[in-house]
Amino acid sequence: MNNIDAKTSFTIMGFLLLIVGILQSWGVAFSILNLCLISAIMSMGVNIQWGFAGLINFGVMGFLAIGGLATVLISVPPVVESWSAGGLGILLSLIFLILIIYACLFINKRYSKYKYKYHLIFAIIILTIPVLKLISGPSIKLIESINPAAQGYLGGLGLPIIFSWFVGGLLSAALAFVIGKICLGLRSDYLAISTLLISGIIVSVIKHEEWLSRGVKNVIGLKRPAPYEVDLQNSEWFINLIEIIHFWSPTTKGIIISSSGIFVKICFSVIFLITLLILLYLSERAVNSPWGRMMRAIRDNETAAKAMGKNIVKQQLNIFMIGSAIIGFAGAMLVTYDGLFTPSSYQPLRYTFLIWVMVLLGGSGNNYGAILGGFVVWFIWIESAPIALFLINIFTFFLENENIFKIHLIESVPYFRYLMMGAGLLLVMRYKPEGLLPEKKIKF
Amino acid sequence: MDFLNALILLSNFVIVPSITYGSQLALGAIGVTLIYGVLRFANFAYGDLMAFGTMCVILFTWLLKSWGVNLGIFPTALLALPFGITLTIIVSLFFDKTVFEYYRNKKSSPVTFIVVSLGIMFVLNAVVRIIIGPNDIVFMDGSRFIISAVDFKEATGLLEGLTIKSTQVITIITTSLTCFLLFNFLNKTKTGKSMRAYSNNEDLALLSGIDPNKIILITWIIASILATIAGTLYGLDKSFKPFTYFNNLLPIFAATIVGGIGNPLGAFYGGFVIAFSEIALTYAYKKFIFYLLPFSSDSTNLIQYISTDYKFAISFAILVVVLIFKPQGIFKGKVI
Questions:
Q1: Do the domain assignments include residue A98?
Q2: Which of A79, A143, A320, B184 could form a disulfide with A155 if both were Cys (CB 3.0 to 4.6 A apart)?
Q3: What is the mean pLDDT of residues B173-182?
């Protein structure tokens, strides 16, 4: 029964995209589809943490940003001058940082009975921060002064960008390990607040450490796993292909340019769809395995699961890392699709809470639900502006176009999407709290 | 003489700003902590409630100004404050009746409440941006300085001029007055005592015949008053921008937890702890040390402990330390 539900809802989603394609343009339809696919992966990550394990993670934005950073660190060619100018200093300070962390861990473990252990660790951290700044300061200045208009940072490894998706996932998992060690024992509301704070810190680090990520100056022109429009427009086979598809009238330059854009988007769609399907397959397998049953048992009754001899702390840390890895993966995909990394665009409303709306609306605890949520919410998010404009024009038809009130409303059209999201979330929580596609209850 | 200069420098850039910022945080944190104590959930919509209240105050300020009403040397916003507060109370009670009451009767988990408050956050966010737009708005009028640097330098002959903005004085006076009234209410009046009792132990309070609906109503009213006042003071001191208000939620939460959730006095101190550490750790002490040292140094270093960009990190670090070592907060003991 449930599966039929999923099928119909995805068919409806497909039809909606078709309508957009016919009414607006195919380019818009495919870019909505691509972001729907990426959003679906993001909400799958959150769903693994929240739906399967009951862990509330409001730090989604931070993991997405880390994934985005991975694309820069992996795919951009290294800036040789910066490395020779300040690379040594950066490496030194990195080693120093690792030493500090090891010292703290060592004290924590070796002197675990010592009364002033935490005072000691605290003192080490406080005292070493200025030293770290002294070591890294000059090299950071050197790096940032090299060709600041285009570079001014260390660059990356120059590898294909697809690698960065996996690296983004790994970096996110590593970060989730640290965060989980600190925060996972906390009560649910404390966990929510601390993850929100941490994501704020991560984004501000990425925003302000220009030697690493170019910060607010953005990294543009990232590599792509798909062909470039310009190459397509000049290649023989593509023009032939368009002529075959577009058989009813002669092909002009304009048609080739617009269809090259659509072709690139279709390439992305195929890659994203394959990724989504693989992740879905893995996730479904995991959920229906004994491990998935154990996670749900921990979610539903922690004490009982503990009594059955399950290591709750370890399992929760595991699933927190897995979910965050998927979020980081999606973050790298998003930056790859955009082709540019803009740290200042990461805002909690768009990158944390919107993803949460996707999960809650789609149905937490159900992979298909999370994917559907990603599709529906992203679709509404994009299409709410035209819909709101349409509605405003209907309701204010009696006002002339110069009316201040009407102009003000039309200017604030972009913000109606927040209203729709909020109202949608409140309605779903009230009347269908299990979401559009509820979790399957397995009966034995 | 150099010592005096250094002291004035410090008071200009660290002491006075932290007291002002701390007061604003403290008011917000008390609101969050009251909601947490009585309604038992972390209200993520509080930052946007502050923005909404401030927006109402700004709209009434513009209205009053268009009528030619002003307060002379004081900002007109003070006159508009009661109207803004009334509107904010109405909105809070509206959301309580339409949204929160249902989940309260169902005895939903705290997480459900958090999620629902996210929904309200989105709605308020949209309402504020649709009505007044997402841009920076300065609505401060009246005189800007109580003591200006130039006058002070002329009067004393010191190198550094003491500046005290009128908004800083207004913030401090308003906060002291509000907190005085609030703590008197909580500690002296019967309603205040029943509020504390309800927050301390719901079942016992119900057994003693305390009306929960009345307590909840009063909690929302007080929280809305505090949100509007805190938001307006922040807006007067800096400027009004909806996104900043959302971001201020984070230090406010940190202050609440540092002070011990559900403890208004703790939240009050928590606000100052967060504000002082944020400002003192991000201030560049170069000039300060230059006055104190007998020799002059040509260091290009700003002598700043952490760069200003990492304000968040300070709230978070304090939060982590508190959560690990004293999860019930620094000022436990009395619960509300």
A1: no
A2: A79
A3: 94
Average of pLDDT values for A50-64? 92
Residues of A in contact with B106 (CB under 8 A): none
- Whether residue A264 contacts residue A229, with contact meaning beta carbons closer than 8 Å, is answered with yes
Q: Which two tokens stand for residue A262?
A: 């659509």
Residue A441 lies in a domain: no
In a domain, A114, yes or no: no
Q: How many CB pairs under 8 A join A and B?
A: 129
Considering only the beta carbons, identify the residue of A189, A347, A422 that sits closest to B120.
A422
| Alpha helix stretches (DSSP H) within chain B | 2-10, 16-39, 46-66, 77-95, 101-106, 110-132, 149-156, 166-188, 190-200, 202-207, 212-237, 242-259, 264-282, 286-292, 311-325
Cβ–Cβ contact A196 with B under 8 A:
yes
Helix-helix angle B46-66:B110-132, to 10 degrees:
30
Q: Is A208 on the interface with B (CB under 8 A)?
A: yes
Q: Of the candidates B114, B319, B327, which has its C-beta nearest A197's C-beta? A: B319
A423 Cβ contact partners less than 8 Å away, ≥ 6 residues apart:
B119, B123
Q: How confident is the model at residue B3 (pLDDT cuts 50, 70, 90)?
A: confident
How many C-beta atoms surround the C-beta of residue A95 within 10 A?
A: 11
Q: What is the pLDDT of residue B300?
A: 55
- Contact indicator for B241, B52 with CB cutoff of 8 Å: no
A212 touches chain B (CB under 8 A): no
CATH value at residue A187: 1.10.3470
What's the token pair of residue A374? 């990603």
The reply to whether A305 falls in a domain is yes
- The CATH architecture assigned to B2-325 reads Orthogonal Bundle (1.10)
Per the structure, how many domains does chain A have?
A: 1
The pLDDT assigned to B335 comes to 44
Question: Cβ–Cβ of B123/A422 closer than 8 Å?
Answer: yes
Contacts with B316 from chain A: Cβ below 8 Å: 194, 197-198, 200-201
Query: What is the average pLDDT value for chain A, to the nearest integer?
Result: 86
Query: Which residue is associated with the tokens 């009792």?
Result: B197
A90-96: average pLDDT: 87
Rounded CA Rg of chain B: 21
Q: Tell which of B122, B129, B305 to mutate to test the A interface (max A CBs under 10 Å).
A: B122
What are A168-219's pLDDT values in tens digits? 999 999 999 999 988 887 778 888 888 988 898 899 888 888 888 887 888 8
Tally of residues, chain B: 336
**Residue A259 CA to chain centroid, in angstroms?**
28
Give Cα A180 to chain centroid, integer Å. Answer: 18
* Total residue count of chain A as it appears in this document: 444
Beta strands (DSSP E) in A60-165 are none
Q: What is the pLDDT of residue A3?
A: 52
pLDDT, mean of residues B106-120: 90
Domain boundaries, chain B: 2-325
Q: Which domain holds residue A362?
A: 3-78+155-431
* Residue B276 pLDDT level (bands cut at 50, 70, 90): very high
Beta carbons of A213 and A72 less than 8 angstroms apart? yes
Q: What is the distance between the alpha carbons of residues A39 and A359, in angstroms, rounded to a whole number?
A: 10
Separation of alpha carbons B269 and B260, rounded Å: 10
Give residue B301's region: left, alpha or beta (phi > 0; psi -120 to 50): beta
CB < 8 Å from B in window 124-153 of A: 129-130, 137
Q: Which helix (DSSP H) or strand (DSSP E) does residue B165 occupy?
A: strand B164-165
Indicate the SS3 state at residue A246: coil
The separation between CA B46 and the C-alpha centre of its own chain, rounded to angstroms, equals: 11
Cβ-based contacts of B253 with chain A (< 8 Å): 193, 196-197
Q: What is the pLDDT of residues B43-90, one digit of tens each?
A: 999 999 999 999 999 999 999 989 888 877 888 888 999 999 999 999
